[in-house]
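Wed. Picked up where I left off yesterday with Anti-anti-sigma regulatory factor. The coffee machine is broken again, so keeping this brief.
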Amino acid sequence: MRLRKAAWCGLSVETRMRDHVSIISLSGALHASSATTLGAVFAAALARVPPLVVVDTRAVDVIDADGRALLAAAHRHACASGGHLIKVAADPGPDDGLEVRPTIQAAVAALIAMSRTVLSAPMTAPTAGSV
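Structure written out below (tokens, as returned):
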């Protein structure tokens, strides 16, 4: 497990891997200024195949519209790439369409279970008229 730490614009970021899951832990304020730079952190996590990402927001004081938009965009990208993103939060807050778990451990377990289900599903050929 490799831990990386960074801080800018009032936001601290730690990234690490656990069981093929990228974990991004945030603390401080996730707003327009920090969201722009944080995009590079998400890009690295979303480059994995499949992208399985946990974003721990329990120590985030404020998430503005730009921060919520970044999380939503990362979630859409992960899903479109065959993966998933789960937000860790003590309180789910406003419905932003993200799956929320109370702990990192619960989020990692859910992603591992999801990935095993997807990887073990039988592949079927498209039928005539389904394409």
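Quick read: The chain has three helices and six strands.
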